[in-house]
Structure formats: C-alpha cells, structure tokens
Amino acid sequence: MDVWGPTDSAKETAISDSTPRTVGELGEFGLIARMNAGRRFDGGVLLGPGDDAAVIAAPAQRYVVSTDMLVEDRHFRLDWSTPRQIGAKAIAQNAADVVAMGAAPSGFVIGLGCPADTPVARIDELVEGMWTEAGRAGAPIAGGDVVRAPQLVISVTAFGDPPERPVLRSGARAGDTVSVAGRLGWSAAGLAVLTSGLESDLFADVLAAHRVPQPPYAAVLDLPADMAPVALTDISDGLLADITHIAESSGVAVDIESAALADPALDAVAAELGADASDWVLTGGEDHAFLAVFAAGTLVPPGWRAIGLVREGAGVLVDGAPRPGSPGWESFGGHS
Fold first, then answer.
1. Which is nearest to 134 in space by CA: 166, 107, 116, 111?
2. Alpha carbon of residue 233 to chain centroid
3. Which residue did the predictor score with more confidence, 5 or 22?
4. Residue 10: is its pLDDT beyond 60?
5. DSSP letter for each residue of 87-107
C-alpha cells in the first residue's frame, strides 16, 4: 500500500498558503504532504511516512490490531459534526478496541477516501482531529493511503503493544463482578437530540459526547497487575450487546443491576425529549466506555463502578429478568 506520507523532498513542498483549494486541485501527493507537514513520528513508530511502508515497534514481539470504518451518512453526518470531531471519533473508537485488549496503542494507519471537490480545509480539520485524539491515546499516526471516492470514507487500523496475556472476553466466571469505567448512554442521548432537531443548553454535554467520545484509556492502562480484569471489552454497540459477547464467550450468565446505572443528567435530557434514559444506557452505543469483569473477591478499582454479577447459566438479565427488544447496534440493521 502507499504510506500516508511523502519523501523528505516532497514534505518540503507542503502547501503553506491559505488559498482555498479542493483535494482534486491539490492532488494526491500534495494532499499527503500537507497532511504530514510538521508532524512528529515517534513513540512506537520507528519509521513514519516516506517509504513503501511504516515500521512500528513490537516490544512484545506481537501486535494487537484492530480496524474500523466510518462512512459518511452512515456513521457520521457533516451537518451534525465538524471534520475535526469526525477525525477524533475515528481514532477514539479504534484506540478503544486496542485498549480493550489490555494493550497500549503504539500507532495508527489511516485510509481516506473522498470526492475530488472536497475542500482542502475540510481535510485539514479532519487530520487535526485525528492527531489530537491519537495524542490523547498515546500513539502517532504512522501512515496510510488516500483515494478518490464518491463520499467521505475513513478507515483506521490501530496497533497496540499487548501485555503478556491480552485480556479476552472469555475469562468471566460465576461470582465475578461486572464493572464499567466511563459514561453510558451519553452518545445515544446526543444522537437522539440531533434527530429531534430540538435546541437547548441542557443538551450541550450529550451532543459533545456523541460527536467526540472520550474513552477512559487510563482506567485500563493504569491498572496494577493485581487488579487486572479477567474479561474486558469496550462499549461500542451498547451495554447489553457488548456484555452479551462476554457472556457467550465465557459460557456464563450476567445479571445487570439497573439501579447502578442511574444517571440524573440523562434523566433530565430524556424528560425534555419524552424518552426513557434507561434505553440509552442499556442499548446505546459509541460511548466507548470500558466494561470489565473482575474476579470474585477482587476489589473494584478506583474509577470503576460495579453494575452487576456473573452467574451460572447463559444470557444477559437486567434485575433478574430478560429485557425485551434489541440489545444494541448491529451494523446491517442498526437498532432492529
């Protein structure tokens, strides 16, 4: 593949004037040069843009790797989010997948498709958002590719440096405690606000949460070894959907306590919209909070809150009973 970066000589030709131009007018290599101008490629990236491929360190002699895609008008809308927000979100959802294996992000590779008449300023903002979130996750963008496409498409591949034993979904056992770090239902609430078309200062925080999720990377990466979870995932498709993956992989049942999920801030937003905040909390995706199972007898670490128990059996319960309806997002159906 083409690395998302030019040779040193091409870097020197990066566009510096402020004249508005389209991607088509700038050209592939001019766009690549502009995207990389002034960036630092260090940390886990041993060789960044400028050759046929990047080189990323693998201290553990193996990688954790995850790939995700965002397609315009399916996963984001340019009238709802700025390019900077979209770029940040693209990195966050992939970094969260890597951290959900217990791995520290070490680098990102980006694939970008867009129409030729896309304003260069839009790509500038998109890339700035990507780099901002990549910095928060602790790893640089190592390279990638740009192509012409009928709409804006972003593909991110994230690399991570895993612990000796990556944390899988299959380690839960009866008696263990289910816990979460981060907010639940806020992104879904923000989406509901955007869909409603209503405006209120009350909605500012949930709108921000939908536009740029804030995965609490440190809640996982800073855990001491004696507090490591036995199962772990990030909440991308909804709490019930993602805890179902753990239950099925581990061959157990999980019972969630709804009282542990109460959020007065969401209740206030739901009252304005005539909605039920519990639906957002239980089935709303894209918060990228972390869902962990801690072994029986282990204290729940600071920054985490217990929300349920693992039991013998199968399936996911809420307050001891199955919850009807969709458990969350499904890519080919949504909330179906």
1. 107
2. 11
3. 22
4. no
5. HHHHHHHHHHHHHTTTPEEEE
